[in-house]
Amino acid sequence: MNKTLVIAVAALVLSIVGIVFRGPTETVVHTVTESLGSGSGQTQSFPQAFIAGIVEGGITATSTGSTGLLPVSAIDEETVVAITPSTASTLTLPASSTLGAIIPSPGMTKKFYVNNRSATEASTITFAGNTGTILKRASSSVALKGDTDTSNTAIVTLTRMLNNNVAAIVEVIHD
């Protein structure tokens, strides 16, 4: 019994000595210096890298007669506006004051696609600007014709300018 007690006391003394007189410990600090592509809040003030890309989505489907005003609610979260015109139509883009809901500051850009779902070539969609929304184009008008495969599309890029106007660039893609 004495031998067991001596071993237990020796182990206890060694443990206490080890705790009290242990040497300094090393602290390892790792500093992360790369952008991780995310952050809190909606406004980011640094470039972000999305290695796998970004997928945007949403589609608004509508039909129109000879004229129509594109509401901001059709492009605020959606990426595609699918229009089935019953005849040749004019699609008027939103006014720059209305577009302030989605592109409020100079330099902000919104890109979306307008798809002509008509299978009839005569059911053309002609784009028009609006108050403060200036249609930029290479020719006098931008028209998106209907087609039998119903996949003719225009890419519309809206950019808020320093003077608070919105430049609207419309690129028509068709076969």
Name its key features:
single chain; Jelly Rolls; 175 residues; 31% strand; alpha/beta
Descriptive notes:
The chain is of the alpha/beta class and 175 residues long. The protein has a domain of 115 residues: Sandwich (Jelly Rolls), CATH 2.60.120. The chain has two helices and ten strands; from the N terminus they run αββββαββββββ. The protein has a six-stranded mixed sheet, with no helix packed on it. It has a four-stranded mixed sheet with strand order 2-4-6-8, with no helix packed on it. The longest helix has 19 residues.
Topology summary:
Elements: H1 2-20, E1 59-64, E2 67-69, E3 80-85, E4 89-92, H2 96-99, E5 109-116, E6 125-128, E7 133-136, E8 142-144, E9 152-160, E10 166-173
Parallel strand pairs: 1-3, 2-4, 3-5, 4-6, 7-10
Antiparallel strand pairs: 5-9, 6-8, 9-10
Task: Give a brief outline of the structure.
With 175 residues, the chain is an alpha/beta fold. The chain has helices spanning 2-20, 96-99, and strands spanning 59-64, 67-69, 80-85, 89-92, 109-116, 125-128, 133-136, 142-144, 152-160, 166-173.
CATH fold topology of one domain: Jelly Rolls
- Main pleated sheet: 6 strands, mixed
Rg estimate, integer Å: 32 Å
Q: If classified by CATH, what would the architecture of one domain be? A: Sandwich
Percent of residues in helical segments?
Answer: 10-25%
| CATH C-level label of one domain | Mainly Beta
**Structural category:** alpha/beta
Instruction: Give me the count of strands.
Output: 10
Average pLDDT figure:
83
Which H/E pattern describes the elements? HEEEEHEEEEEE
Spans where pLDDT lies below 50 across 5 or more residues = none
Task: Give the N-to-C terminal Cα separation.
Answer: 98 Å
Strand order of the largest sheet: 1-3-5-9-10-7
* Overall 3D shape: elongated
